[in-house]
UniProtKB/TrEMBL annotation:
GO molecular function per UniProt: ATP binding; ATP hydrolysis activity
Entry keyword ATP-binding: yes
Domain ABC transporter: 2-239
One protein family per Pfam: ABC_tran
Alphabetically ordered keywords of this record: ATP-binding, Nucleotide-binding, Transport
Name of this protein: ATP-binding cassette domain-containing protein
PANTHER family assigned to the protein according to its UniProt record, in alphabetical order: INTERMEMBRANE PHOSPHOLIPID TRANSPORT SYSTEM ATP-BINDING PROTEIN MLAF, PROTEIN TRIGALACTOSYLDIACYLGLYCEROL 3, CHLOROPLASTIC
InterPro entries given in the database record: AAA+_ATPase, ABC_transporter-like_ATP-bd, ABC_transporter-like_CS, P-loop_NTPase
Organism encoding this protein: Gaoshiqia sediminis
Superkingdom of the source species: Bacteria
Length: 257
């Protein structure tokens, strides 16, 4: 579980996040949604410590990340996995070597132990046969995302952060990546936070959804509740896609029958 209390962040006097308070649940896919420039990326980077917040508190379970010494933060970061928007894979390394990289950096495992862990992670995301391909030059966009997920779980994290994991993917591959992240979250009981503007992801795997607009938390709830929410800014965001307006109208018709 990750808890945020009264989080504020500004850059050069411009407020980007204003008094954010929420909780991200363990074993759930927690989604941060909002338009480009809403502050959701800054929030994700603040949670993992890439941005220092102006004030407020961030708790990893009962540990106050905000007041931790750098050495303690470094140790906590070994409990985190990151899936970056572009994958952030190393061009000169194979698929297997990319997945092994965190093990080389942060563990004292033997080569045999690392090999077993890499094999497990690649098998879990169904790309074992691609282990010796150069990444990312020899694999597809969907494969790159799978490699990024395999690398993110290599250290068996308690917390998983995904920044626009479906960026650049076709709808079918996006659904596969969503399902994979959700399965891993449930299977390993991870606190997963996904930063996205993809409403398909919201409706597929949005167990806890946080909507941010202009740096403020405007709404939170589930994928079922989002279609019924009486929030003007949220409605403008959700129903920009006519598909979801149609779903909402059909549900409301059914409720009145």
């Amino acid at each position: 579980m990750i808890r945020i209390e009264n989080l504020n962040k500004s850059f050069e006097g411009n407020t980007v996040l204003n008094n954010i308070t929420t909780e991200f649940q363990k074993g759930k896919t927690n989604l941060i949604i909002g338009r480009s420039g809403s502050g959701k990326t800054v929030l994700l980077k603040s949670i993992v410590g890439l941005h220092e917040i102006d004030n407020g508190s961030i708790y990893y379970d009962d540990r106050n990340f905000t007041t931790m010494k750098p050495s303690v933060r470094k140790k906590l970061r070994q409990e985190m996995g990151m899936v970056f928007q572009g994958g952030a894979l190393f061009d000169s390394l194979t698929v297997a070597e990319n997945v092994r990289f965190p093990l080389d950096m942060f563990t004292e495992q033997t080569p045999a132990e690392k090999a077993r862990r890499v094999e497990f992670c690649l098998d879990r995301v169904n790309i074992s046969r691609e282990a010796h391909r150069l990444s990312p030059s020899e694999i597809s966009g969907g494969m790159k995302k799978r490699v990024a997920i395999a690398r993110a779980i290599s250290l068996n994290p308690k917390y998983l952060f995904c920044d626009e994991p479906n960026s650049g993917l076709d709808p079918e591959t996006s659904l596969l990546i969503d399902d994979l992240i959700h399965e891993i979250t449930v299977e390993f009981n991870i606190t997963t936070i996904i930063n996205t503007h993809d409403m398909n992801s919201v409706m597929e795997i949005g167990e806890k959804i946080l909507f941010i607009s202009e740096g403020e938390m405007c709404w939170e709830g589930t994928k079922t509740e989002i279609l019924y929410a009486e929030n003007k800014k949220l409605q403008e965001f959700v129903f920009a896609n006519p598909q979801y307006k149609q779903i909402r109208d059909l549900r409301r018709e059914a409720d009145t029958d």
